[in-house]
Amino acid sequence: MPTLPLVPLPRRVAPTEAASPFPITSATTVSGDTDAAGTLAALLRTRTGLELAATDDGDIVLSVGGGGEPESYRLRVGADGIRIDGADAAGLFYGIHTLVQLIHGTDAGWIVPAVEIEDAPRFAYRGVMLDVARHFHDVDTVRAYIDRAAALKFNHLHLHLSDDQGWRLEIRSRPELTRAASATSVGGGPGGYYTQDDYRAIVAYAASRHMTVVPELDMPGHTHAVGVAHPELAENPVLDAVVSSGGPAPRAGEPYTGIDVGFSSLRIGEDATYDFVADVFGELAELTPGPYLHFGGDEALGTSPEDFATFVARASEIVRRTGKTPVAWHEAGAAPGLARGTIGQYWSFVTPVDGADERARAFTRGGGRLILSPADAIYLDMKPHEDFPLGLTWARGATSVERAYRWEPSAVVDGLAEEDILGVEAPLWTETVATLEDIDALAFPRIAAAAEAAWSPATSDAGDRTWESFRVRTGGLGPLWTTLGIRFPASPEIPWTT
């Protein structure tokens, strides 16, 4: 059968006995799960302009509870219609998005090829991260990114809510954080923050798309903004620790608008620091129904190893006592007192450098697991090519779509079993990203490669799990992405369908 525009690649795709595709017309009807029917109707309206009527016995039947692995589904297109059975509501949701990918226009109208698909995810955690600290992104922009990610079967949204440039979440016990430290962003542009009601709205919207929000308040480094609001909690910038970009130098107590990293730290030895940690993560835990709270722990370059270890031990335990599972970047694996069960997020390269693999393995020895985010593969803020107007190049230069695709999660950190890997996450840092159009320009089409690494079978276990197959399948999604309003660049690496 011809290569179908399915990304991420399903576990199994086979033709059915039907001799011809199933037509989608103004007379097509849907029955079954009400929520799922509403989702499908909205997507079809956008994609085709057709209104899908609900009946008791539809041409498209949607059901939940057919058994199988969590988030799995079965989709069958035959002469008698279309049926999608989800093991749960999330599985049915993903099956609907697979169906929408299959719909394409012909001279005779809209059709769906006659196929049978059985599908389930490889990893339980499939994430995207949006940095709202370097540039603030409002609730509507976050919702739009949720829609884009959920359509590719991502199920976690990691929000990077604080950094040197700004604090972006209302903490009622610490009102100075947003009063004094939220108004600016990289380059001196406007900042902003989420009220607690804004944050709850994001969490609820994500849940309606079967996504869990993972909030991050980064510390002990990346905390210059905390020092603007609470100078008593922050050390002076350590300028000889800066990874410099040539921009403005940080000054204690003044908002920072550059993109250097490594210079800031909380005061590790002060009890007031841990009162602050308990306050902010206590409120964050109450606001967050999901199981994870991320406390950062990366690039504390001006902090001694001993102080860093002290902070990580105390902060991870504070998070654990909220009833949530702590998450930290892989540097925190160097701390012998890291709270048991903490999840590590690996951000070094596909081939580890500077001992990152050993720090990552430390999480699994402590009862935790790993989220893989190799920077030279799925950091979506890297330039796709050297001349691209947005993005950075520190992760081994520009990251092409092909490089974003050609990596295998199980091969990154030696000594890990498959069950040690919780999942895959594609971060989007926003030093150069100020608008939704910027997000689209850097994320697409490479976000599709990250989706396939997170959902699809390992490269050794599926014949079509190849670069050549992926680039053709992704190219077939161009018309769908266009109708969904995604302003993706037409990468020359992809043979786009017009």
TrEMBL record:
CDD domains: GH20_SpHex_like (cd06568). The lineage of its organism: Bacteria, Bacillati, Actinomycetota, Actinomycetes, Micrococcales. This is beta-N-acetylhexosaminidase. The keyword Hydrolase applies. It catalyses: Hydrolysis of terminal non-reducing N-acetyl-D-hexosamine residues in N-acetyl-beta-D-hexosaminides. GO terms for biological process: carbohydrate metabolic process; glycosaminoglycan metabolic process. Its EC number is 3.2.1.52. It comes from Microbacterium marinum. Keywords: Glycosidase, Hydrolase. Belongs to the glycosyl hydrolase 20 family. One of its GO terms (cellular component) is membrane. One of its GO terms (molecular function) is beta-N-acetylhexosaminidase activity. It comes from the Bacteria. Residues 123-457 form the Glycoside hydrolase family 20 catalytic domain. Residues 5-120 form the Beta-hexosaminidase bacterial type N-terminal domain. It holds the Pfam family Glyco_hydro_20b.
